Amino acid sequence: MKVRLTRDGKRPARTALRPGAWSVALLCALPASPVPAVPALAADVQGSACDWERRDEVLHTGGCARPLAVPVLQRAQDALAGSLEAEREPQAFDVITLAAADPDAGAPVLAFTKELPALAVEPAAAPEAGAGLAQADGPRLQPFLGSTPVEAWRRADRDTRRDAAALLATSVAATTAWEEAEAAERAAPGTFTPLQLVTLQQQALAQQLRWAVAERDQRIGMARFEALDRVLEAFAGAELRQKAAAAQAAPADAAAWNDLSVALSSDRLVALLERGRPAEAIALYEALHASGAELQPYALVAVADALAQQRRSVEAVPLYETALRDDGSGRRMPVEAYFGLIYAYLDTGRFEEAESLLAKLEADTPPLLRLPPVAGRANPEYSSVKGMRGFLLMYTGRVEEARQHFDALIEEAPFNAGYAQGAAEAELLRGHPRAALAQLEALSANHPYDRNIRAEYAQTLLTLNEFAAARRIGESLAADYPDSTFQRKFERQQRAVTGAFLEVAAGLDTGDGNALADRSWSLDTRLSSGLLGDEWRVFYDQILGRGETGDERANWARGGLGLGWQRGGWQAEGKVQQANQGPYRSSAAALVSYRADDHWLLSATADGNSKDVPWKARAAGIGARDAGVSAAYMVDDGRRFDASWQQVRFSDTNRRNAASVSWRERWVSGPRFQLESLLGGYASRNSRQDTPYFSPARDASVQLSLRGQWLSWKSDDRQFFQILEIGGGRYHQVDFGSKPMWGLRYEHQWNLGPKLQLRYGISLSRHPYDGVSERQRGIFVSLLVPL
Fold first, then answer.
1. Neighbour count for residue 69 (Cβ, 10 Å)
2. Which of 174, 424, 633, 700 is surrounded by the fewest CB atoms within 10 Å?
3. Pick from 57, 64, 120: which is nearest to 94 by CA?
4. Using CA atoms, how far apart are residues 609 and 576, in angstroms rounded to an integer?
5. Distance separating alpha carbons of residues 316 and 301, to the nearest angstrom
6. 284 Cβ contact partners less than 8 Å away, ≥ 6 residues apart
């Protein structure tokens, strides 16, 4: 049953009619004899364009007698000829509806409709009149009824047009409803109220926005935004129209106009976000919020998405929570909105709430739809929720569990691209970039145009130092998907990895002064350019230091200008350097490293003026040169084995050969706390002992350290960690036996953005030298700043 709206958009106060009851109800205003009643009918129809309440009374009050179709139509044709052209179509509808009361109306109505074009009226008048006539003579009246909704629309009276507009707008044809309403209003002003017209326009633009987003996701380049730009322009026009009409509206309609204004602004907010303009979307929301507007949940989710993209997840969380709050209706927002809240929880360190929300989502998302149109239909959100479990494990430090989870999912759904991408990302976080790249290459073969896979592939290339290939993919992403979220994320990472930076490290140590310095400080600075030609860097480093050993003091400064090269698994550096004192003032240094695969890392170094010379040796005018090699085997991000050898050649002919091995293992890995152990061994041999500095003939040590790291604060890519490291072991020196040694270190680490890091802390240790244990106390600070 349809419910009509009166001209002001309100429900009429009348009894609803049953379908097919029009032919009876229309007779109420007529005398018992039908023929003399036709002039009165014509008068009522003549006034139908201006007196809508009278027309409702005539057409919708219960009736009795039946007129004959032929005389009614003959008299009505004369009346139509004398009426205004713009008013003839609704008048024709009323006449045909009345004539439908005659059981023999089929042929006369068809003849009447053939005469309507001469009166500038579309043949036939309304689907409701046709429905009544079809009961009497359906087959012959098919031309009258028409075959499409648009044709029925064009034949409808004002009320029916409103009903049809509401029906179309709430189905899948809001744009058609708006276009037809505009055409009807131009043909017959007053058919729709301004409020109805702007409401239809808002619904049409909302539908066009959905179409524009779908078109954007199917196209590449700037052309993908053409439809969205048109919609944004249309929203601007609709808002101007709404404001102008609302200014002239009656006070009683103020609330309806305000709701419509909020709806238009909300949809424009969504359009700005989809266009890749989150800052503008946030500004619009702030203006709406300041005005006291209450946005619908879908708009709040859009604002929260925009805030998350701008790395403002703390502000996004309450908006997500408000939008997803259960209103008791049993309806659920799209699963992507819940994922947005889960990621916002993770980005703000609220890991327990993220876990709780995902667990609830898993319980509420069965594999099959509960009330499907076809039994056994799969739930399209189920696979997404299962994949989200893997990403939650990954982003809370449980990378190995995430890998196993994705492997199990791939066995169940081997062609699911999201699962395969998650598995590749897990491999990358486990420290296996080549394995991740191989998986992404295989995935790209099946999904060559998947933008997320392309972005992940480019990020993996950055990790592998394949900067040229990563840049080319990044440029293609920027050309194909400008202003997209994943493209902006890649650009941030690319700037952090390939950009210029400044690194500063400083320390101050005090000791007992027997073997080591009484007091010393150092400042180590390195300034590096960004990548040149995707492979080269120019850098300058400088070391300043001072040591006090009893009555002697030593000042040392060294500066060096160098060139670095990175490509794939290879990295090399060379520099020339100049010091202020010592036997090796002018020297050179070099470094070469090679990552053979995801497990082996080999390196070699040489320094013509070593910075690891004891302060007592520097005070005596002694310098040194060093060279060394090392190898590391990395099982994954939680287990690593290292071995190294170094030779230091002092200028006093002393030779020191040292070797070390270590095993690092992570035992606890979670979102807030990680616990690692480091078991290491060290041994050295010196060729001379008659030196002014500590130089044992042979010594060795073994030490076990535990390192705990607590995440104390997190906001997007900004984090604060507290780190405590405790170690102890035995030190053995020839001729002096073995004694215990221990160390303690407490540190604060602030990650304030991509490659922006501040670290500082204190240290305390005790170590035997020549049989006497000395205590060392120190403070340290380091800063890494991208430029």
1. 26
2. 633
3. 57
4. 10
5. 9
6. 265, 268, 269, 272
Residue 765, phi then psi, degrees to nearest 5: -150, 160
Nearest to 138 by CA among 97, 99, 110, 98: 110
Structure tokens given for 71: 């005389």
Do 391 and 421 touch, CB atoms closer than 8 A?
no
Report the distance separating Cα 265 and Cα 294, nearest Å: 11
Q: 396-413: per-residue pLDDT in tens?
A: 999 999 999 999 999 999
In this structure, is the dihedral angle defined by the CA atoms of residues 459, 461, 465 and 466, taken in order, positive or negative? negative
pLDDT digits (tens, 9 = 90+) for 90-148: 566 556 655 555 555 556 666 666 666 665 554 433 333 333 333 333 333 333 333 33
| Three-class DSSP category at 36 | helix
By the 8 A CB rule, do 198 and 245 touch?
A: yes
Which one, of 599, 594, 603, lies nearest residue 640 by Cα?
599
Of 306, 314, 317, which is closest to residue 268 (Cα–Cα)? Answer: 306
Neighbouring residues of 754: CB distance < 8 A, sequence distance ≥ 6: 492, 493, 495, 496, 717, 786
**β-pairing verdict for 655-669 and 639-650:** antiparallel
Model-level pTM greater than 0.85? no
Phi, psi at residue 387, to the nearest 5°? -65, -35
- Any idea what DSSP says for residue 378? B
- 756: number of CA atoms within 13 Å, CB side? 10
With CA atoms as reference, report the closest residue to 653 among 617, 700, 682: 617
Question: In residues, how long is the chain?
Answer: 787
Whole-number pLDDT of residue 167: 57
User: What stretches of 375-430 show up as alpha helix (H) in DSSP?
Assistant: 382-394, 399-412, 417-429
Distance, CA of 39 to CA of 72 (rounded, Å): 9
Q: β-pairing, 501-511 with 570-579?
A: unpaired
Q: How confident is the model at residue 511 (pLDDT cuts 50, 70, 90)?
A: confident
Which pair of tokens denotes residue 324? 């997803």
Nearest alpha carbon to residue 603 among 626, 628, 623: 628
Is residue 200 within 8 Å of 175, Cβ to Cβ? no
Name the nearest CA neighbour of 86 among 164, 189, 179: 189
Q: How far apart are CA 190 and CA 51, in angstroms?
A: 12
**Which DSSP string do the residues of 483-552 spell out, in sequence order?**
T-HHHHHHHHHHHHHHS-EEEEEEEEEEE-SSSS-SEEEEEEEEEEPPPBTTTEEEEEEEEEEEEEETTE
Three-state SS string over 198-216 comes to HHHHHHHHHHHHHHHHHHH
**CA separation for the pair 526, 501 (Å, rounded):** 8
What is the per-residue pLDDT across 637-667, written as a single tens digit (0 to 9) for each?
A: 999 999 999 999 999 999 999 999 999 999 9
Find the largest Cα–Cα distance for the chain.
139
Q: Residue 371 burial (CB < 10 Å; 0-12/13-18/19+)?
A: exposed
Residue 140: closest CA among 111, 170, 165: 111
748 pairs with which residues across the strands? 722, 760
DSSP strand pairing (756-769 vs 536-549): unpaired
